[in-house]
Amino acid sequence: MTGIYVFSEDPRLAAELATTAAALADEVHVVCLGADASRTLTATGATSVVVLEAAGAPRPEAYVAALAGLMRDRGADLLLVGATVTGWEVGARVAALLDSALVSEASVITALPDGAWQAERVMYAGGAVQTETWSGPGVVTVAPGRAVAAAVPGSASPVEVVAVDVDTRVRVVSRTARVRSGVDLASAARVVCVGMGLAEPGDLALAGDLADALDAEVACTRPVAEDRGLLPTERYIGISGAHVHPDLYVGLGVSGQVQHTVGFRDAKVVVGINTNPAAPLFAVCDYAVVGDAHEIVPLLAAAVRARH
Ligand SMILES: Cc1cc2nc3c(=O)[nH]c(=O)nc-3n(C[C@H](O)[C@H](O)[C@H](O)COP(=O)(O)OP(=O)(O)OC[C@H]3O[C@@H](n4cnc5c(N)ncnc54)[C@H](O)[C@@H]3O)c2cc1C
Fold first, then answer.
1. Would you list the DSSP string of the chain?
2. pTM listed for this prediction
3. Tens-digit pLDDT profile for residues 163-202
4. Residue 228 alpha carbon to ligand 1 centre in Å
């Protein structure tokens, strides 16, 4: 065993990864970007801190070859990468360059007696745990918060600087902040969710009217935001979208796939309106209405207003 390398562009996450790696191998090498990061990381007690020295704010493609080269030349067993947007890209690119195994979002990593590795990862929004084993070098991404970074008192790991030959063919010429709609679905007490069964442009007014009557926020499923572009992406609920905890969730023309329903599993009361009596949403509903949302939604809005 020649040791585990860890990398994150975020020094706090790199320190967490160093703690995880220290429980698995005697040698831990922390790879970071820039001298500032290395100053905090020498306190982790790592065998060494390797600084990838690349001018400016380098993009992953500028330094992944250097990282893969370190792994290859030094016969590293494993690379742990912090699971951030940058880390996902770095992990995938390094694994491709090394032609090695890649495990994403590992929750438990184990060194097996025969020199192979095993990792557990949660799948299907917490519905299953997958166990993967591999031999030879591998790349594993690890989410923030999996370990508490432990500083080693009096520790000052040796620092090695590796100059990176930055490919300048692609340059960042400007950055524009993403405009967000400002909606806070996570704290909404009531949510009216638009699905593809109610996703023609004119249909939004129906959902908006019901939301007005209920004093609710309008949300949607992912295809309504990403494929149809009818609502901003901040408004879609699910595994890759917002997680909501409302007192009331009303799904209009929502089929109820698990990638969506996991986003509102803490809702107190769930109502579904769907033409298909076998829609999976009905399995998680307190009130299931089988019928056309175009007909039922105006009736429901009027009934709610009549009770005010
Ligand atoms: C990796 C991955 C991540 C994903 N993440 C998310 C996520 O975070 N959030 C998310 O929402 N999705 C996510 N998805 C997509 C998800 O799997 C579903 O495809 C999506 O949720 C379906 O959206 P829908 O219910 O609006 O559309 P559909 O599945 O097309 O359902 C439309 C429903 O409307 C009903 N209907 C049709 N006409 C009417 C009518 N007139 N009145 C009433 N009902 C009607 C139909 O019977 C049907 O049940 C993800 C998928 C993958 C693979």
1. ---EEEE-SSHHHHHHHHHHHHTT-S-EEEEEESHHHHHHHGGG--SEEEEEE-SSS--HHHHHHHHHHHHHHTT-SEEEEE-SHHHHHHHHHHHHHHT-EEE-SEEEEEE-TTS-EEEEEEEGGGTEEEEEEE-S-EEEEE-TTSS-----TT----EEEEE-----SS------PPP-----GGG-SEEEEE-GGG-STTHHHHHHHHHHHHT-EEEE-HHHHHTS--S-GGGBBSTTSB----SEEEEES----HHHHGGGTT-SEEEEEES-TT-GGGGG-SEEEES-HHHHHHHHHHHHHHH-
2. 0.65
3. 888 777 777 788 888 776 778 898 899 999 999 999 998 8
4. 12
